[in-house]
Design brief:
Shape: globular
Strand content: 15-25%
Largest sheet: 4 strands, antiparallel
Structural class: alpha+beta
Helix content: 25-40%
Number of helices: 5
Oligomer: single chain
Radius of gyration: 17 Å
Length: about 150
């Protein structure tokens, strides 16, 4: 690396809190949102990020309780270490448009939100969805869940 490369830092430009979201491509059914979001992990908080993910992975049954209110059909988180050495979290979600977000009255969701506020930079960058594909037999169940939060 050159000394210029050593000074490079991945920019982080979160969307405003009132960002309505990107327009959904035609392949995303009406009433649903497909989102891929990313945020930088605060430098020095990488260990706490791993604790956060370990907490979520160790308590899946508790996390299921919040999915109905969130109208979350699918969620997944990924870690990426970028060329500049910074660590980022990527979050992929498919949900109903009427998503209520995390229900912090549920202890696991409260812990999830607390880690989020502590470990990652505030806000999210939102990537623009362009295409989604799901088998029809799953799609019908996903649309029902996204609309009602019930099977």
């Amino acid at each position: 690396m050159t000394s210029h490369d050593d000074d490079f830092e991945m920019p982080f430009t979160p969307v405003p809190r009132d960002f309505p979201g990107h327009k959904m491509p035609p392949s995303v059914p009406p009433g649903m949102r497909l989102e891929l979001s990313r945020s930088r992990i605060v430098s020095g908080k990488e260990h706490a990020f791993e604790e956060w993910m370990n907490m979520l992975n160790s308590r899946p049954d508790e996390l299921q309780k919040g999915l109905s209110a969130e109208r979350a059909v699918f969620e997944a988180s990924f870690r990426s270490v970028e060329a500049d050495g910074s660590t980022w979290i990527y979050h992929l979600a498919l949900m109903g448009e009427e998503s209520g977000g995390l229900d912090e009255s549920i202890p696991i969701d409260a812990g999830h939100a607390a880690y989020s506020r502590s470990v990652k930079e505030p806000g999210w960058e939102e990537l623009e969805p362009r295409f989604m594909l799901t088998p029809n037999h799953l799609l019908e169940a996903m649309k029902r869940w996204a609309a009602t939060g019930r099977e």
